[in-house]
Every structure is written in C-alpha cells, then in structure tokens.
C-alpha cells in the first residue's frame, strides 16, 4: 500500500499489473444509433461486464491484494450500498481473506444477494439514523481488520483508474481521440482515477462528472472550489451514487482535472436505461446510466465530437428494471 497523497500515472500502470490476472478487460463498443443521433462518435466503455457487474472490482482487488501481500490472514471491513460490497467480498475471497461489509437495510436485493454469494458477511444499518463509517470503523477495531474504503483511498483510486487507462489504449488502437468523457460520479473514485490516464494521453479532453439530481455535490464543489454537502432530504433511484460529499483525496484530484459537472434527473436516467436495453442490448443500473442520460438529454452538444461514455455498473433488481422498461 502507498502513502502518497494521490496516485500517479505510474501507480495506475502498477495497478493494471497487480489486477491483470483477475479482472476482465471490458469492450469499448460503438453504436451506429448513438453516432447518428449525436452527429459524432461515441465510445462506450462497458464496465457492466466487469467481474461482479461493475468497475468496483478493480479498485477493491488492487487494495486487497496489497493487503494480502502484507498479511495472509487479514480480515477486511468495508461499507457500501452494494457494488463496492460485492467487489470487496469477491476480492477478499480470491485472496483467501474474510470480509464484512456494512450495508444499508434498503440496499438493492440484487446487490445483497451478490455480496452473500461472494462470501461476504453483511452488517445492515439504517441509513437515516446511523452512520456507516462509524459502524465500519468500530467493527474494524473490534476485529483488528483492514478497512477498504469505497473511494477515498489511493490504492482504490489507482485500481479504478485502470478503467481510464484501458479505455485510452482501446481508443488509440482505433485511432480515436476522445474530446469529451462522461463518467458517473458518486464519491469520485472512478472519475478521479480515470482522469489521470485520460489527461495524460489526451491533454485537451474535457472530463465531466455526471451526478443524479439532489446528489450534485461534486458539481457544486467544483464550482465553489471547495467540498460541498448534499441535502439530507434528497432521494434518487441511483443508489450507487448517493454520497453526502466528495472524498478528500478524490476531490483534490478532480479539482485539478475535471470540467464542469452535469446533473440528470431520475426520469432522464430511466429513459437512458430503456435506450440502453432497446438499442444497445445492454442492462445498465441507474447509477451506471447517468453518463448515457447526460448524452441523450443534450445530444446536440456532442455534434462532431468524440465522446467516451462509461457505463459503470449493471447490478439492478429485476423488479425495478422491469418497472422502468414498462414506463
């Protein structure tokens, strides 16, 4: 594990080597429909096809493998609404370690079942009355366990950054230079990690964090140039992006590398999920579809542009998915 203030491009290359044998390189797809609608070129990074159904496995495994190298009988503790939970449980299992994850009582059923299937122990909490980090830190102290944060950690960010490094390599192989990147943003780990290799390979690229309405803390923080909090009364179907404020480490990186944020509504996200299923034949969860929602909502903005679009996760409950499709 590193003690640096932020990961570097070299750290992300190192993370790629560290996780290579255990992740799935995900395709960078093209869509004739999206190209025609936008009047540009859209490159779709399909992290919905990643192990455990989201990009989160990359960061969790990078962190946990480094822990395992230090201690072969370590315990792991994490907190998550679901995608990080599944990733931590799976990564710990691969490394022969035990894991306990603090999850909200209203976490999506698919994510709870996925975490249990990967061998993780779940400790439920009430997100309206309890603080998951407080519970997780107490649990880690009691069990003498290592904490694997969902985003605000150098090794986790480095692992998530391999999405951007992989996408940059794939785009260059197709002689494509992205002008814009639309990347889902919760705590900011994915977009912070991706911004480092993307800015290295494409210095002029505009990287936009996309957030659900009511949880636009990064958008407002970038404008204010300081970390801002969300209202405690906000709600959204984008369960994987519901954080109160940007991470300390992630925001420092994002303030340096990101362009202005984009905010989408739940209805726009639902339309994007339907579009992905009908035209791309892909199942995308609400939080993973916000970038596509941003693209479709203001499609004329991207005329004559090459857009890198990250679909970050596909873990959606069947009942919720059916309801969205039927609306």
Which short descriptors sum up this protein?
single chain, 327 residues, six-stranded mixed sheet, four-stranded parallel sheet, 10 strands
How are the SSEs ordered, and which strands pair?
Layout lengths: L8 H11 L8 E3 L1 H7 L2 E6 L9 H15 L4 E5 L3 H12 L3 E7 L4 H9 L3 E5 L6 H12 L2 E2 L6 H20 L6 E5 L4 H13 L4 E7 L4 H8 L23 H10 L4 E3 L1 H15 L9 H8 L8 E6 L6 H9 L1
Parallel strand pairs: 2-10, 3-4, 3-6, 4-5, 7-8, 7-10, 8-9
Antiparallel strand pairs: 1-2
Helix pairs in contact: 1-3, 1-7, 3-4, 3-7, 4-5, 7-8, 8-10, 11-12
Strand order of the largest sheet: 1-2-10-7-8-9
**Helix/strand class:** alpha/beta
Oligomer: single chain
- The H/E string reads HEHEHEHEHEHEHEHEHHEHHEH
Low-pLDDT runs of 5+ residues are none
Cα shape = globular
User: What is Rg?
Assistant: 18 Å
Distance between the termini: 47 Å
How large is the count of helical segments?
A: 13
> What number is the mean pLDDT?
96
Tally of DSSP β-strands: 10
* Overall helicity: 40-55%
Q: What fraction of the residues are assigned to beta strands by DSSP?
A: 5-15%
Biggest beta sheet attributes? 6 strands, mixed
